[in-house]
Amino acid sequence: MEKEIFSYRRLMFTTFVISGCSMVYELLISAVSSYLLGDSITQFSITIGLYMCAMGIGSFLSKYIKKDLFEWFVFVEIAVGILGGSSALILFISNIYLAAYQLVMYLEIISIGVLVGLEIPLLTRIIEENAGNLRITLSSIFSFDYIGGLAGSIAFPLLLLPQLGYFSTAFLVGSLNLAVSVFILFSYRKYVGHFSKWRGICIISLGIMLCGMLFSENLAYSVEQGLYRDKVILSEQTAYQKVVMTKHKDDVRLYINGNIQFSSKDEYRYHEALVHLPMSAAEKKESVLVLGGGDGLAVREILKYPEVKEIVLVDLDPQMIEICKTHKDISALNEKALDSPKLSIRNADAYRFLEENAKSGKCYDVIIVDLPDPNSETLNKLYTDLFYRLCANSLSKEGVMTVQSTSPYYAADAYWCIHKTIKKEIPNVYPYHVQVPSFGDWGFQLASKKEIDVQNIQLEVKGKFLSQENVQGLFFFGEDELAKEENLSVNSLSTPRLLQYYLEAEKNWE
Predict the structure, then answer these.
(1) What is the CATH number of domain 2-224?
(2) Catalytic residue among 39, 365, 370, 373
(3) Is 370 a catalytic residue?
(4) Distance between CA atoms of residues 32 and 48, nearest Å
(5) Which residues contact 216 (CB under 8 A, 6 or more apart)?
(6) pTM above 0.85, yes or no
(7) CATH number belonging to domain 264-509
């Protein structure tokens, strides 16, 4: 009789929730490790593989649990909630204070994975023992499990991470697991032994997670302060990236996903080299396209040319633009260039923008490609032969393009791979570089459909660093900065060689 009146609908809802939580933990650990260590392909691959293996171990171990199934399920949810909810905090602290970050990461993945692997077998046996009909039980429970996984995988990148950040997301999802334990405990209290003990543990654990969520911003600030040399004055998770700004005296630094973008002490060296060489080499400069450069510093330099009539800035992240428009330190540095009436801002993917622009037939006199380093598969796409073909389609016959190209000293293979890839699509490519103290030796590529006499470029705007006397010197390289270009591959969408070269260089210099 009890089997007939046993309600398993609540357990189906439980399955949906815990499956979504499980997926979020998997994505969260992968994202945190990618942020802290780089090489997102490796981090996601290791996390997913290890997590799935650990889930298999958990499923295997479930056969040794022969009684007190409700109590075991409540215990698992408490343990998953505590471990998963504190996972981001544990990983960040481990990265700052421990040399063995990866060991902690692996233990975190395995521990959560084993516990998650116990959940579905326990729920299946609970329903089967109390409601009967194994066929319906299995079909129902796996349906809700898969749908919950989908919900978690959609919610994490579109809602949780952009709105809450790493810490709040972890604490929120941990709270959901603990709320499930409370829900099960009170819904099926007659099946649970030691009810009072479990009730106390659940409520205390849930309270801790909710407090963690409430004070997550303070925790994030304290922990992030340990990741950066200077005082953190801004930390924002946008829909696309983590933006952090630090300040020490008059040195303001901007970081995206942990990688420095500029230091106010020497950024002018980078941006003068990036902008003034192509602008001086171009016969016309009425229309300028900037891909990336959401900080407005390249636009600041472009506006020094009175003949410029139109600047189109393409940056994927509207929040990044807003930060650089409104934050007093950056807006002072870019001299409010992002408010210029000559400037048109397009929040779009640079690749997609160029595809659409090719259909319109519009060409630009100067194209400045100021994108982040190719340290992920997403960014690698913006350094491929197809991308540079699209750039060539948007470049006028007499136009000039420049591309920031990483360091020819620290990442020589990556630098010369970019050179070779551009040369495949644009016939005349001239590599040059400049010393930027906060970056080291940094490289660029000057490209045009017609030949440029780089030794006779007449600088039209004198900068703090750049002058007519030192322009020619930028095109000379030391022997230790040269790579055997013939041994390097062109970077393409199907064969992302550049990403391999870059990650190898990053690993060597760590």
Answers:
(1) 1.20.1250
(2) 370
(3) yes
(4) 14
(5) 164, 165, 167, 168, 171
(6) no
(7) 3.40.50.150
